[in-house]
Design brief:
280 residues; mainly alpha
Length: 280
Amino acid sequence: MQSLFLGLTAALLWGMHDFILRRLGTRVDALPMLFVSLVSGIILLGTVTAIDGGFNILTTDTILIALAAGFFYALGCLALYRAFAIGPVRLVAPLCGSYPALSILFAIYGGNAVTVSVWASVAVIIAGIALVARGEKDSPSGKVGIAVLWSGCAALGFALTFAFAQTSAGQGDALAASSVTRFGAILVIGALLLARRAALGPAKSIWRTLVVMGAIDVTAMTLVALAGRFPNPEIAAITSSIFGLITILLAMVFLGEKVRPVQWLGVLAVFGGVVVLGMG
């Protein structure tokens, strides 16, 4: 039950994060925006962790595992942005949101028992995400093959992120491990910024918004990582995948965007899958 609650809370936070991102539109390139958001998040989390003294109990193995989580998180985020940039949404959203299936496979590989009801819940949730995505506007590009490739990279990146993040949180202080994960992601994004010689200027113009996004993102990631201290941590990864649905519902409430009947069917499917997980 703890993992379910942590995952749902993370989904709510990431839904808010993407709602803000959606309002920003394409005013700022994803790379500098992601970098500023990551840096603001680590300043917040690192300060809290330093006061708490959590860095003192990290082992070398825990640090390396957390850095690996950061690397894959950067990969997942970049692949996600790239996949949605070339669309189509109805294809990209369910593929990117399929990472819970990979999380379950990693859990089985790690020796955890996974019931048939969990597999069924994942299938229903992914199907629900696909239905919700059918009502969204597609991008004009339509490069299906490349979109599938980037979507697969995003799903793999997020699944590996949560697997490594939960392992590192289970070995040491969860806040400290999440700070190291964040630092690993910053190293990757920073290196790409230098390689592309991308300017941070446009991102600086909305730095207050990016600070808020960074705080939301780092909190959500820490919650999913914290599930590594509880039974069935893969449940947190599964339920966190519904963040896209939260974004659409927020857009409906605050921006007046219409939700089509097929999307409501998807919403019901997702919540049905979550209920089954809670009963298990």
